[in-house]
Amino acid sequence: xxxxxxxxxxxxxxxxxxxxxRPTRQRIGLARLLFDGPSRHVTxxxxxxxxxxxxxxxxxxxxxxxxxxFVDAGILREVLAEPGRAYFDTDVxxxxxxxxxxxxxxEDAPVGSVQIAALPEAPEGARIGRIDVIIRLExxxxx
Amino acid sequence: xxxxxxxxxxxxxxxxxxxxxRPTRQRIGLARLLFDGPSRHVTxxxxxxxxxxxxxxxxxxxxxxxxxxFVDAGILREVLAEPGRAYFDTDVxxxxxxxxxxxxxxEDAPVGSVQIAALPEAPEGARIGRIDVIIRLExxxxx
DNA sequence: ATAGCTGCAAATGCTTTGCAAGGCC
DNA sequence: GGCCTTGCAAAGCATTTGCAGCTAT
Lengths: 143, 143
Fold this sequence. Notes:
The structure is a homodimer. By secondary structure, chain A is of the alpha+beta class. Chain A has helices at 12-18, 25-35, 44-53, 60-73, and strands at 41-42, 77-82, 85-89, 97-100, 105-108, 126-139. In chain A, the strands form two sheets. A three-stranded antiparallel beta sheet of chain A has the order 1-3-2. The longest helix of chain A is centred in the middle third of the chain and has 14 residues, at 60-73. Chain A is globular, with a radius of gyration of 17 Å. The model of chain A has no long low-confidence stretch (mean pLDDT 88). Chain A binds chain B through residues 78, 80-84, 86, 98, 100-102, 109-110, 112-120, 122-123, 125-141, and chain B through 78, 80-84, 86, 98, 100-102, 109-110, 112-120, 122-123, 125-140. The first copy, chain A, binds a DNA duplex through helix 2 and helix 4.
């Protein structure tokens, strides 16, 4: 169960409040959908479908707005794996990804499989904000 | 001067032919624009503007189509740095990137600054196709 | 009560495509 | 000449936004 570390033991409502978001019906519903259970990778459409299936009444527009708010609040991470489609990772801790080109599936890379050696420091007035590593897995070409 | 290693010494036209593309006026013009001189990172719009400035008559649609053909031909690399906008790198050799969030600028990361440790095996029937590493540089403002 | 949400639909921005005219071999 | 390309505009997608009505505090 992801979410920020300083919100352990809090209810979904309280956790939303902690990150500065008013706990509305749809935000609570989406937060539960996303953060209860193991971490995973979803697209806006995925969430939309799941919300519908779970009986959470939300429009696609609100899904997009809410996902972005969660990202800004630091409880969700955006992952760029494919052009034209945004993936969201409910695990915001430092880790990298495998992307299955064949079916567009995103998967966590085993911890420690990627190592950053000497990181050159950023130019004046800049700092390293995040490091995205995506290991692209393609169907083994049949020769 | 990028391009595939086995085309050294060939004219732009011949090099296009080598990768299976008919050397048309616009493909030659774009190839020269992109591959003559040091490697760089561009968007479709950048290329469009440069082509216009250089007097190469090309439509935006053809720019997009051509860039994709170049990518498929292996002489250009697509880099995902921002959602909704594709960057292209004229250097297809193994290397990683710095992305300046502030101004959307893409830059090569110094060689050797990133090191991949134990790469986990790829699942049945899959192989590692490419590894994208993007180091996000943000304005060092207040945290 | 009121500032903040939500939903719908229309708008946006990047990229692709359909199809007629033109260029390369 | 035949077939691949180009160009324009229109179509597509994913995502964002404007605004009236609703809701949490």
